[in-house]
Amino acid sequence: MTAPSRNALVPFVSVDNMMRLVLHIGVERMMVELAAEIEADFRRWPLFDKTPRVASHSDIGVIELMPTSDGETYGFKYVNGHPSNMKKGLQTVTAFGLLADVATGYPLMLSEMTILTALRTAATSALAAKWLAPKGATTMAMIGNGAQAEFQALAFKAVCGVTEVRLYDIDPAATAKCARNLAGRGLTVVSCRSAEEAILGAQIITTCTADKQLATILTDNMVGSGVHINAVGGDCPGKTELHRDILLRSEIFVEYPPQTRIEGEIQQLTADHPVTELWQVMTGAAPGRSTAKAITLFDSVGFAIEDFSALRYVHSRLRASGLFQDLDMIADPDDPRDLFGMILRAQAELAA
Amino acid sequence: MTAPSRNALVPFVSVDNMMRLVLHIGVERMMVELAAEIEADFRRWPLFDKTPRVASHSDIGVIELMPTSDGETYGFKYVNGHPSNMKKGLQTVTAFGLLADVATGYPLMLSEMTILTALRTAATSALAAKWLAPKGATTMAMIGNGAQAEFQALAFKAVCGVTEVRLYDIDPAATAKCARNLAGRGLTVVSCRSAEEAILGAQIITTCTADKQLATILTDNMVGSGVHINAVGGDCPGKTELHRDILLRSEIFVEYPPQTRIEGEIQQLTADHPVTELWQVMTGAAPGRSTAKAITLFDSVGFAIEDFSALRYVHSRLRASGLFQDLDMIADPDDPRDLFGMILRAQAELAA
């Protein structure tokens, strides 16, 4: 049939093209650039249209839509969370996302976001640590060595100057996989046999486990003063990783309180427990870490603005990289009122 | 690179393939089948996960996400509404949607929905009229002859037995376009010069105009007893088509009250004004039209379950029709925990 009009075509970034883009830019450079993009958007936080994600829960998982807009560009992400998927050989978290033009409502780009979410989550974690971790932090414990682990390690290396990561997972095969993937990348990688061993000498502790349960990956006596905790895995109702007593000793920083109070570690606390919004630390509206001895906690659940920043980053690299394909996704007849006539013309062309 | 795994691929129905599917099945048969699918889902209404659509408003339009789930399948639609788009040569409403498997969160199908929305809106309108219009209704007035008009006309012919449509639009070119497209399809088509002329002898009145304003397409004295009004165009805050007095004389039927009270004609009424949910008429839980002389009003705004039904209908025809392409949309490494390793293997293949 007649080729679709330019307005009908939406650039699509496939998984294959996202991998090529990451390799083209380089993982660490991409982490630094993503963190800069996210920080720039966090600094103009009040300008965004914000809403807690729209979740559809079932017994074994959740499907969520995460929309936001800065008034010029609209973005949303579709993302699922199914901890039992791993046993079926499937990803626990898969995602895709879309950018659209607020002025017309027309889509600007569709993109895979399973890989991009891992990148933006790691970039956000490292960005938070850049603002909150104790000065001179170079060693990070990583508890949970699954799909997110290598991204976290490389983001902390690139953005925060971490030089040593100490790995622990209840499944030694996950630790071995992570250590193998990180080999030769300029990090000292230490595989540990317990969470206690992993946190030895660490100024930063990242928890990133996937089980949906009220877990206690870290108990109170494991966490000494002057550390920064990057709690990534506790991100939906009923899924936490830290003992409540750690939270009570910590200075807590979050993305968007209405969402984090439902989904984050702080679901264990009262609804009025004081927390600081990370964007306010960046703009100077709120203090960050109070003293070198404080425990800072970034209670990360992932917010729509981070996906928006990541999608905009990818979109800005599209034309130069050429790493996309056009999808015939929008019906766009010459006369916008003649949608039906478009079908009739297609019929005539098929018959010809 | 190595071909993506089967789990990575999501069938995508482009605009071109949607047009081919419509032509393959036939517009009228598709309307009848869509109406049946929608009725079947309305009859199991309480089972669905329901939420008002998630809207992001700007000065000149709105972008919405409309999710729902029946516990086995999840669906959502992205749809915009930008009345000023037409002047730019763009569609007022464009849409796409997705089905996913609730058990895994993995997408099952991505589809264009600009055309599909026009089809499902018309099928829903005709379905409502099948239950609510006076017996033996054969003539329909159509006020507003834009992108939705031909779909509405053919749905009412196929589902309700309408034999004559009387067209009126403030722009005669829209009426001419509609009359031209409907020629030779077994309908008597009468082009009229006023709304008053269009409603002469009509037992059904469809209003489907696009201006975002508190319009009065129908005034009170235009509407006599014993008619059914299918009000399609009033579908967002500040956008209505009927004079309030008509509403006060009508038996009002809606899709999902929490959404219709915000978006429909009934935004002009108090929040406790009695309305009947259409699904309850179908199951017998609530009465439909009370007498032959009553005015029935279907205050249509479009609900997520109709999109769900339409997407499931298209999905059920995919394999037989072959009218789709596979998108490499889900990162699906052999070891689900080895997302990073997938990138490393891609690098090795690119270097080879």
From TrEMBL, chains A, B:
- Which InterPro entries does this one have? NAD(P)-bd_dom_sf, ODC_Mu_crystall, ODC_N
Which one Pfam family would you cite for this protein?
OCD_Mu_crystall
Give the matching SUPFAM superfamilies: NAD(P)-binding Rossmann-fold domains (SSF51735)
**NCBIfam families assigned to the protein according to its UniProt record, in alphabetical order:** PRK07589.1
Q: Supply the name of the protein.
A: Ornithine cyclodeaminase
Q: Which organism is it from?
A: Gemmobacter lanyuensis
Give the gene that encodes this protein: ocd1
